[in-house]
UniProtKB/TrEMBL annotation:
Stated name of the protein: Thiamine-monophosphate kinase
Alphabetized Pfam families for the sequence: AIRS (PF00586), AIRS_C (PF02769)
Biological processes annotated in GO: thiamine biosynthetic process; thiamine diphosphate biosynthetic process
EC numbers, comma separated: 2.7.4.16
Classification of source organism: Bacteria, Pseudomonadati, Pseudomonadota, Gammaproteobacteria, Chromatiales
Keywords noted in UniProt: ATP-binding, Kinase, Magnesium, Metal-binding, Nucleotide-binding, Thiamine biosynthesis, Transferase
Residues reported to bind Mg(2+) 3: 31, 75, 208
Residues annotated as binding substrate: 54, 253, 306
């Protein structure tokens, strides 16, 4: 269908497929699904990354392995889930043991940081792509995209736009090196798992920023049925010599958290950030209404971030 987006496809054809079981507590439409068990509920997420779509062909194999897991852990972070298990689907154009060795090293390094066990999967032949499915425990109430209340403050973690700047630097003229800070932010995203867990009981809602701040803030606004009013002055403070304002707003690949919390939680949010050694910035507030607003202008969410189709 002409003009059909990724989210249109999901809503029209896939979202109803998970609604017929009573143990599905959260189905399609959030950063992760939630299923009931005899013990703690489980959060489950899956993402695919494809060469020349989600990462450049010349990206080192170790970075590909790290990123493939990081994008999934970021989804668990947004749900305040503790990572436990993972499954891997690896599609290779040809047998290349040296590449797989380095890929596995990158994936293993990040998995060890979060005590995640890779317990199965599949390898097949075809264009290079990686699918990782992760499952985590939910020791407390999960964070969801729905839950923002009018009056809540809107926060982001980290430094937005650095990953987009790193990708641009990597692709610019071949002179970039792996140890440049913005390049590092693209090659090795930092999933905010510890911060997500620390925000349980403080934040009213959360989402991970994968497609760009404005686009992902739009999901929070839509699913919470509120307007998010963002402050350009606070966002401009994230701009630097290496990072443009456009990258902060629409860059994508940040894998930071955008979350909401009531004003009386300001001190506790800052303490949670300090305890997890994470930078957090208040960038606006929620109000009655709909959509995302940058100062007094409503954002066109159709062009607000990365489009998969």
């Amino acid at each position: 269908m002409q003009g059909c987006s990724e989210f249109d496809l999901i809503a029209r054809h896939l979202s109803r497929l998970g609604t017929h079981r009573d143990d599905v507590l959260q189905g399609v439409g959030d950063d992760a699904a939630i299923v009931a068990t005899t013990g703690e509920p489980l959060a489950m997420a899956l993402d695919t990354i494809v060469q020349d779509v989600h990462f450049p062909a010349d990206l080192p194999a170790r970075c590909v392995g790290w990123r493939a897991l990081a994008v999934n852990l970021s989804d668990l972070a947004a749900m305040a889930a503790k990572p436990c298990w993972g499954l891997l689907g690896l599609t290779l154009p040809a047998m290349d043991e040296a590449w797989v060795e380095q890929f596995a090293a990158g994936l293993h390094a990040l998995a060890c940081q979060h005590e995640l066990a890779l317990i199965g999967g599949d390898i097949t032949r075809g264009p290079l792509s990686v699918t990782v499915q992760v499952t985590g425990r939910l020791p407390h109430q999960p964070l969801r995209r729905a839950g923002v209340q009018p009056g809540d403050r809107i926060w982001v973690s980290g430094q937005l736009g650095e990953a987009a700047a790193g990708l641009a630097r990597w692709q610019a003229d071949g002179s970039a090196t792996i140890d440049e800070p913005v390049v590092q932010r693209f090659l090795y995203p930092t999933p905010r798992v510890a911060l997500g867990l620390a925000l349980q009981g403080l934040a009213t809602a959360a989402i991970d920023i994968s497609d760009g701040l404005l686009a992902d803030a739009g999901h929070l606004a839509r699913q919470s049925d509120v307007a998010l009013v963002l402050d350009s002055t606070r966002l401009l403070a994230q701009v630097s010599d290496a990072v443009s304002y456009e990258a902060v707003l629409r860059g994508g690949d940040d894998y930071e958290l955008c979350f909401a919390a009531p004003p009386d939680a300001d001190k506790a949010v800052k303490q949670a950030a300090q305890a997890t050694q994470t930078l957090v910035t208040c960038i606006g507030q929620a109000d009655f209404g709909a959509g995302v607003w940058l100062d007094n202008e409503r954002v066109d969410l159709r062009t607000a971030g990365y489009q998969h189709f």
